[in-house]
Amino acid sequence: MLLTALRRAGCQAYPVGGCVRDSLLGREPADWDLATSALPEQTEAALAGYRLVETGLKHGTVTALTDGGPVEITTFRTDGAYHDGRHPDRVAFVPSLEEDLARRDFTVNAMALAPDGTVIDLYGGREDLAAGLIRCVGEPSRRFGEDALRILRALRFASKLDFAIEPETARRALADRALLDRVSRERVMAELSGILTGPGAGRVLRQYGPVIFQVIPELAPQAGFDQKNPNHIHDIWTHTTMAVDAVEADPVLRLTMLLHDVGKPAAFFTDEAGVGHFYGHAKIGAEMADDILLRLRCSGEMRRQVVTFITWHDIEPPGTKKAMARLAAKLGEDTVRRLIQCWRADSADRAPAVRERNLAVIARSEQALEQALAGEERCFSLRDLAVDGRDIMALGVPEGPAVGRVLKALFGRVLDGELANRREELLAAARDITEDCNPQKTDV
Question: Regarding predicted confidence, which is higher, 419 or 75?
């Protein structure tokens, strides 16, 4: 055991930070971090029997790869000035745990576990856990000035733990939000994903909208935007936050709902009766979301999925088997299933009568999809056809584009319900198609 090995070498060593916090909350820690009096070279000597990675020697960190996962072991330290607003210019190794805990971000993350099992808590972390509060260690302005990413981390912990943020910490998070401009977009994206997937996501987004707008300014026009439409009961930003809460806590779906109406302000107009409309906002929003996610260094696959869902989120859900089969053929079965979740989330925050009507339509569409999926004759792509190119060439069609045209014609007729996806029926239809395209000449 790492702790035992370090202590046998005459070094102090303590589990510290999130693993202590999660244990006190009765949760299984996602990972373990150790703080030690050992210098990095002493850590490596004490743990010579382990596979070690020198992940951050200049900051005193060595990572041990164990059967239970990687464990970071960091020398007690204090941090120097943070001139870039993100990383300390230098660190100084210190002999005491107390000095090390003083540099940490939030009280709930500044606790350690002593060898006898007691909790070392110098800043009221247990009280804040009991009260459900995220509070900076020391002065919030200093903590955020050292590392601006801590502003988003405060929101992430508030969302993940479903905690409130202590008033002074909250005030400084809002006041110092411009510091986030100095943080790399990749780190912003990682923290944003954590905020969105927590149980407190919608509440945190509503309370700290200006912080979110600092990193995604395209969302700012939504705040207080009166939709002037009887179908809607809230401004666009409130609707967005409630839609986030209404969908599964999946990073792609939550990010979709965060951005699904980003195009609405640009598409807004009122008719002669003063009723607001947003025609074309899905297309505008998909283009804006693509730009936003590129800027945030989002992975290509996640960006593609989010843009697809936003593009299709505002269509009237088709309630027929034929239409749902065509949609599944176009987008893929899994994409359509997740799109249905987006439709439901978007409808969750509507005027009651509209909500009930929309949810009924969505339920019919989901049922139609299940009917289209049922049975061995399901067909959502050319690969699903009961015949292939070899079968078509066996009918005399020369290899090349003509084979593809016949297969696509068959596929379209299967989707339209004109043909069953059965081999003999498809071959008979293929013969008709090839004969129509190549009529035999007869002598008169």
Answer: 75
Q: 131, 149, 178 — which closes off a domain?
A: 131
CA–CA gap between residue 41 and residue 75 (Å, rounded): 10
402 domain residue, yes or no: yes
| DSSP-based three-state secondary structure for 123 | coil
Task: Count how many Cα atoms sit within 13 Å of the Cα of residue 188 in the half-sphere of its side chain.
Answer: 22
pLDDT value for 444:
31
Give the whole-angstrom CA distance, residue 220 versus residue 7. Answer: 53
Tens of pLDDT, residue by residue over 260-292, are 999 999 999 999 999 999 999 999 999 999 999
**Is residue 173 a contact partner of residue 145, using CB atoms and an 8 Å limit?**
no
Residue 428 lies in domain:
386-437
Q: What is the secondary structure of 368-399 as a DSSP string? A: HHHHHH-STT--SSGGGSSS-HHHHHHTTPPS
Q: Where are the beta strands (DSSP E) in 193-299?
A: 269-270, 276-277
Cβ atoms of 106 and 137 closer than 8 Å: yes
Taking the C-alpha atoms of residue 212 and residue 204, their distance in angstroms, rounded to an integer, is: 10
If you write DSSP's letter for every residue of 48-91 in order, what string do you get? TTSEEEEEEGGGTEEEEEETTEEEEEEE-EEE---TTSSS-S-E
Higher per-residue pLDDT: 291 or 322:
291
For position 377, what pLDDT does the model report? 59
pTM for this prediction: 0.86
Tens-place pLDDT, residues 109-147: 999 999 999 999 999 999 999 999 999 999 999 999 999
C-alpha separations of 268 from 218, 221, 256 in Å: 15, 12, 20
336: tokens are 């359509």
> In this structure, what token pair is assigned to residue 148?
């601006």
Within a domain: residue 249? yes
Amino acid found at 35: A
Read off the amino acid at residue 57.
Answer: L
- For the chain, the distance separating the N- and C-terminal CA atoms, rounded to the nearest angstrom, is 96
| DSSP classification of residue 111 | E
Q: Using the 3D structure, point to which of 187, 215, 243 is the last residue of a domain.
A: 215
